[in-house]
Amino acid sequence: MEGVALGVLLNTLKSVVLVYIQQQKEQSRVIKDATENVDQLENDIWFLTNFEEESMKRRKKENLIMKELLRDVRSSIYDARDAIDSFLAGGVGKPKAKLAEIAQLVESIRKKITPLRHKVEAQYETGGIQNAQDEESAEYMYPPGKPKYVVGFDAKEQQIKDRLTQHTQHIDAIFVTGMHGVGKTTLVAKIFHDPTVRNNFSIPPLWIRVSQPSTKNILLAILKQLDELPEDAAQRCAQDLSKLVAECLERTKFLIVIDDVCEIDNMLMTAFEKSNEDSKILITSNNNETARSVGRDNPSIELQPLKREESWNLLQYMVFGDVGCPPELEKIGNLIAVQCDGLPKTIEIVAGILAKKDSRKFEMNERLKIWKNVSGSMRIYFIKDQGRSNILSSYHNLDSDLRPCLLYMGIFPQRSKFSVSKLIRMWIAEGFVRANESLSLEEIAHTYLKSLIDRNLVIVDDQKPDGSAKICSMNYLMYEFCKTEAGNERENFLEEVKKSKTDGAFLPSIDEVEKYRRVCVHTDLSKFISTFISLRSRSSLRVRLRSFISHSKETCPLKKKDISVIRAAFTLLRVLDAKPMGFTEFPGDLYRLVHLRYVTLSLKGDVLPKDIYKLRSIQTLVVHTTSPSLKIKADILKMTELRHFKTNASATLPKTDTKCNDGEQLQTLCGISPKSCTEIFFDKALNLKKLGIRGQLALLVDGRNELLRKLANVEKLKLLNDVTGSNSKWKLMDVTGSNSKGKLFSLPQRSDQFPPNMVSLTLSATDLAWDQIKILGSLHNLEELKLKDNAFVGDKWEFSGDDKGLPHLQALHIEGLDFVHWQASSVYFPELRKLELSNCTKLMALPLGLADIVNLKKLQLSNTISANASARTIRDAKKGASLDLHIS
């Protein structure tokens, strides 16, 4: 589970050994012991890591001995990482002494690991362990019966039937994709049993589903159903079986359904290449990437979760049949339906529980109590149900790099949406992302996330203009799977601590925190902290936490002495995401957490001291402060690991050291004051991709300044005009000589005065006249524009005549503007895909001409009541073109 991170640590340890060897002038036994022991430890660790990986890939049920062995191996890997981390946290020392210490450390780790390796080797020798590459026997499953009731998929059903009856000159592979539990198998089963479909083929359709869906097992299942299975089939290779299937199906018009597969390889598809025209293969899969690679001639048919009304209709039918639900249970029933996230599988699980527990014989009060109990206990039922085992199969099929990334998403509160950029930075801080020479860590992490999205394990709630994920979430089934699988009873990867609703005690108990590697506390944070500190003062609690996460809505002010206690306990901490924790000043004790890579916290002060440079491993630093300004005394360019810095204040930086050669690692800088935006600084931070400037923008953006154009790599620019966050002595004069008090009169007037590769621009509180927006139409790379808090002022926004409009814009977000009239047509927004408006309370209507924008797919209005009717008119005018309209 943590093989990648441990591999990085071993490389770090080897580098440390090399440094000490170079400092040690004479050769000695100490050097030989240190180097040999580290090499031997590395060999042992990779052996055990490979065993763990094979165990995950192996799908047959393990006996108790093997399960216990796997648990011991996982624990030993965790212990090895802890020991190395603890040593690296100890700081530098004399070379000879440190080399001796390393040799002793590694020897102590190997004393625990070597016997375990011998146990594993013994199991291989005696046949107790089967290689993951070896073929395993598979159970062939019969096709499901025809479902009695299917809702929400009429259009998709017809689309599949049309594909099945469509004339083709070659085999047609039709993929039906979607997340776990969305109803793929149920819908395809309905079609499979439809006589109008079955009669379209020369032989009865085949339903193929095997417990271990390898290419060989699928081919064996096909031959078995064709009654052509040779006696020696199990001994034959997949290539021979593929040829045999091809011979059996030649000159036959057939339909084969292959249900619930993650991957399809070319060898399987070659079995159907000689088949007659009009033959079809109907495949259900969670993996969109497989669908794209195999069914590239035609797009897959993707099923979406049911809508709220559809979910309720399905639930009440499954519980009550045609009788219908009693009115008294409709409210709680609708709530339960919503909790099912539109997934028919979840609805089926809950309906079965309700049907079993409820009875018409009970009094209505008793029935209400039963339904409420089920609503509050869905996690318990899910853990015991087959729904979890279906997801487990997909989880085991993931590459080893992806599994910890998936489970880590369980750190967020249930049903919450999370930022992709934040998630990726936490993955990198934890060491989950395997580096390579051609891509940055962020780019690699994005490929990880895309793989999880393609497998329908993660939901994309919002996208960037380029189509990549911006905001994500997980449905109920996946979230509960992650929490359960990551828990102490299984992977011991992640644990949420929360109060019991019955007795108010924390579950799991706080004194068990020392067992866990990552903890999230989203409620009762103050009580958790006080209890933990009290417990720590009475015992020497050894905590191995890598991440501490809290998204609690309450604030938790910390005393200075409490911070020292927490620091002493969390020596191995890498991620501290604790915005609810309040500090009067930046806690100096954090400097001693040498592994800390990701920090989010809250300050009451307005200074970041010079000593923050001591956070030698820090990659992401996010500071929320109650102060309008923040003075950063450290030269952040010299913090050589810092990649991302964000604050909600106007932050001033110290004067840039011209002799400094660092800064190329910095990618995100949000909240910097215009006064600190100097040419020298940006020459050093030449790889900035996201830049947020907050303060008196007239100091920087006055229509004449040429500095922004030099930011060649900036793709995302945020400009927030904030006079309160700047020094009051700065009073600017406009060209007429009048006191402007920081007012921004214009944007840069030429397109070449903006960052040349800027894709996204946010303007906030700039109070610009509407005619200033026209300059943005000449920015050929601008795809996303966000206008917030009176970015532009005036009753009317109008494009007319020869105006360019915003010809390349794909996403437009308008929030808190006071304009009343908006006049435009599709000519001025030809590429617009997404339009969002919120808190535009004076806007009377949207331009009806927006309905003519071909690519407009999403329209969302929030607290923009007067414009709601025009939004519906635009939706209706789109007719056949689908427009996703949300009004709140």
Describe this structure in words.
There is one protein chain. It contains 25 helices and 33 strands. The protein is globular, with a radius of gyration of 31 Å. α25 (868-877) links the parallel β32 and β33. With 888 residues, it is of the alpha/beta class. 40% of the residues are buried. The longest helix is centred in the first third of the chain and has 32 residues, at 95-126. It starts with a helix and ends with a strand. Helix content is 36%, strand content 16%. The protein has a 19-stranded parallel beta sheet that branches.
Short description:
Helix content is 36%, strand content 16%. The chain has 888 residues and is of the alpha/beta class. Helix 12 (308-320) packs parallel to helix 14 (344-357).
Write the layout of secondary structure elements.
Blueprint (H helix, E strand, L loop, with lengths): L2 H21 L5 H29 L6 H25 L6 H32 L27 H12 L6 E6 L6 H9 L2 H4 L7 E3 L6 H11 L12 H12 L5 E4 L7 H5 L9 E6 L2 H7 L6 E2 L5 H13 L6 H13 L4 H14 L6 H13 L1 H7 L1 H12 L4 H7 L9 E2 H11 L10 H14 L4 E5 L5 E5 L2 H11 L8 E2 L1 E2 L6 E2 L10 E3 L4 H14 L8 E3 L6 E2 L2 H10 L5 E9 L14 E6 L3 E2 L11 E6 L3 E4 L11 E9 L15 E5 L6 H6 L5 E6 L20 E6 L38 E5 L3 E2 L14 E5 L3 E2 L2 E3 L12 E5 L5 E3 L10 E5 L19 E5 L5 H10 L6 E4 L1
Parallel strand pairs: 1-4, 1-5, 2-3, 3-4, 9-12, 12-13, 13-15, 14-15, 15-16, 16-18, 17-19, 18-20, 19-20, 20-21, 21-22, 22-23, 23-24, 24-26, 25-27, 26-29, 28-30, 29-31, 31-32, 32-33
Antiparallel strand pairs: 6-8, 7-8, 10-11
